[in-house]
Design goal:
Protein name: G-protein coupled receptors family 1 profile domain-containing protein
Low-confidence stretches: 21-40, 364-409
Subcellular location: Membrane
Oligomer: single chain
Strand content: under 5%
Helix content: 55-70%
Shape: elongated
Largest sheet: 2 strands, antiparallel
Number of helices: 16
Radius of gyration: 26 Å
CATH class: Mainly Alpha
InterPro entries: GPCR-like, GPCR_Rhodpsn, GPCR_Rhodpsn_7TM
Strand order of the largest sheet: 1-2
Number of strands: 2
GO molecular function: G protein-coupled receptor activity
Pfam family, one: 7tm_1
Length: 409
């Protein structure tokens, strides 16, 4: 069916170069510059195949397995009734985008491992997916994840550093999590035209399909500007903003915690027993935000460099292939270990996970003990109580248990 709908190109000269048969149909001049695939594959470093086996045959499946398990558990935990905050809506959107991105990375890994860069398919459907949909769907989901994380960071920044602003600052969260994917996939729509399919007829009558770059499109002024804009929107700007906002959140939160500690200790010495817990809360927040920023910077930056430097000349270089595989694996890692970071630094997330699956080997009354201690503490003045309540709600993003069992992010 797809063969009738999609009129793939026939280039006898190119097919003769790829498969070594004279399929030129009367034209004996072989256009070696028609595509970078055959020439690059013929000059391929012998170490590249071992690199593919290691990167896409061993490491990538492990990362994908951990990422799928982690993001599925993320979605299960983040849909619990106590996870109702605005931030959790964006975290669910981020986890869903990350899960889809990892799923779409699986056929990419298979293609790199089995079919290499240009492929050789006997069915048009996988060739069509590789040429037109692979990058569009994969990069689109990655872009949605980046914007979800950026939106989440902005909401945290406004909540902590500008608590007087109207929230949610980015508009209704339910509408935002729908708007972001629509806009992102529209922006990535031109990537559909990056490749075309060549149909080759072998001497034994077998038809095979081969993917080649759309050189006319890739060399156009539009695409040269477009790929730079993509890196700015989805790599450069989010990296700078996420790092800057998280740094500012950590600074403001530490100052706030220090003021609260001084006020509490000067008011009544019996509150000294709460001080270690507040130190732990501050440390978890710092580690959570710091690890998020560093992870994003380390894992996403190489991919931005890769997209700008990708060319036919570089594809034949073994060192570039190593960098390419590393960039792909790092970006996939960024979206695969979010669940494990939440478990490590967010106590509320861990408690919800334990309650959801009712794991008997974990003690469950952690939140209850903390709430009991909080309820037995000496009450503040009415004005201090209102100010403290609002400020704690605005600044607590590390996932500590709150009175009533509600999340405070």
């Amino acid at each position: 069916m797809i063969t009738r709908l999609y009129p793939s190109e026939e280039e006898p000269n190119l097919c003769s170069v790829i498969f070594g048969a004279n399929l030129s149909s009367g034209n004996d001049d072989v256009d070696m510059g028609a595509d970078d695939g055959p020439t690059n594959e013929s000059r391929e470093d012998p170490r590249t195949e071992a690199l593919r086996q290691l990167s896409y045959g061993i490491i990538l499946p492990v990362i994908c397995a951990l990422g799928i398990i982690g993001n599925v558990l993320n979605l299960i935990v983040l849909t619990r009734r106590n996870m109702r905050g605005t931030a959790y809506i964006y975290m669910r959107g981020y986890s869903a985008a990350a899960l889809l991105a990892i799923i779409f990375a699986i056929p990419f890994g298979i293609r790199m491992l089995v079919h290499k860069d240009k492929g050789r398919w006997q069915d048009l459907a996988p060739a069509f997916y590789s040429a037109h949909l692979e990058l569009f769907l994969g990069n689109g989901c990655l872009g949605v994840g980046v914007l979800m994380l950026l939106t989440l960071t902005i909401e945290r920044y406004v909540s902590v550093c500008h608590p007087g602003y109207v929230r949610p600052f980015m508009g209704p969260p339910s509408a935002t999590v729908v708007f972001i994917p629509v806009v992102t996939f529209i922006i990535y729509l031109p990537s559909i035209f990056r490749g075309v399919i060549v149909r080759c007829l072998l001497e034994n009558g077998t038809i095979v399909f081969y993917r080649k770059d759309n050189e006319e499109f890739l060399r156009s002024l539009f695409y040269s500007v477009y790929k730079v804009i993509l890196e700015v929107i989805f790599k450069l700007v989010p990296t700078v903003l996420i790092a800057g906002f998280n740094l500012r959140i950590m600074m403001v939160y530490r100052q706030t915690c220090e003021r609260r500690r001084r006020m509490t200790l000067s008011r009544n010495s019996c509150f000294k027993e709460d001080d270690p817990r507040k130190f732990a809360e501050e440390r978890r927040l710092t580690l959570l935000l710091g690890s998020t920023s560093i992870l994003f910077l380390v894992c996403v930056s190489p991919m931005a460099i890769l997209h700008v430097t990708l060319s036919r000349e570089n594809l034949s270089s073994y060192s570039f292939q190593v960098f390419r595989a590393l960039a792909n694996l790092l970006e996939l890692t960024n979206y695969s270990i979010t669940f494990y970071i939440y478990c490590l630094f967010s106590e509320d997330f861990r408690n919800t996970l334990i309650r959801t699956f009712k794991w008997p080997w974990f003690s469950n009354p952690i939140c209850k003990r903390k709430n009991d201690v909080a309820l037995k503490s000496k009450p503040l003045l009415k004005s201090e109580k209102n100010g403290s309540k609002n400020h704690i709600h605005n600044t607590t993003t590390s996932g500590l248990c709150t009175i009533g069992g509600r999340s405070s992010i």
